[in-house]
Design goal:
three-stranded antiparallel beta sheet; alpha+beta; about 50% helix; globular; about 300 residues; 11 helices
Length: about 300
Amino acid sequence: MTNPTTLPPTLLAWASRALGARPAVKDVSHPRENSRVWRLDLPRARRFYLKISPTAVMYERETLALRSAAPALGAGGAPQLRASSAKDLALLLTAVPGRPLKQLGLSPVEEARAHRHGGALLARLHVASDLSGPRRAEAAQALQAAANGAEGHLAAAGDRLTAPEQKLVRRLAEELRALPPLPLAYIHGDAWERNLMWSTARQQAGWIDFERSRAATAVQDFVLMACSTWTDRPDLRAACLQGYGRNLTVEEQHALKCLAAIDAVSCLVWGPKLDDPHLTARGRRTLDRLMAGVFA
């Protein structure tokens, strides 16, 4: 991180009590203002992470996911929640084996294997939580909520989009509203290579960072990969969906296109705000592909 942050003494004491020993601490936050994550190392190669959620909603979503749904991914498939503090929005997590796929220089065959395993884990996650009552209602309204957010993103993006691009995004948002009901799921919400762990030694995948997990439509979990990794690597799309156990339906493929347009505008809003050129570039590239009619 550009400006390392010190773990507050009260949280270090809390984590030490939970772990039964005082760990060595290293700041491993992402290079953005609201990321606060520390690696905690104990003797005999025991490793944990202490994370302060950016918001109360993200804290609630991640704790719920780690308690109710993520255990379905099996040992090493997701972090285990060792302790949590609602007052501090703090989570004490076990380490997931391996490293983020984005950091690994794997062969195309090995990359495909990792994406296949990652897709299989998403399939487990999607059916791991009870989608009844309020959660089903939340999931059923997820596409409508996404479409409703398009106009606000467009207003915030302003002249970063041309008039034809704005027209296209509005049209796709309306088409998203008109789609028939799609398969519902409990989604990860931030599923892409930054959060997909891969252990070459174990040949095992795992997902981390469940702070955006929620009840939604299943296809919403593939938007980030469709707007990044899959753009140049259709083989990885095929591998992920093979692991997932099914291809997207025609309606889901169209929803993915519509959601990609809304994601692109969001990227063009938040990229400059966060001084994140990669986020901005993702949004611009997605819009360019949509305008050229080559998004698939």
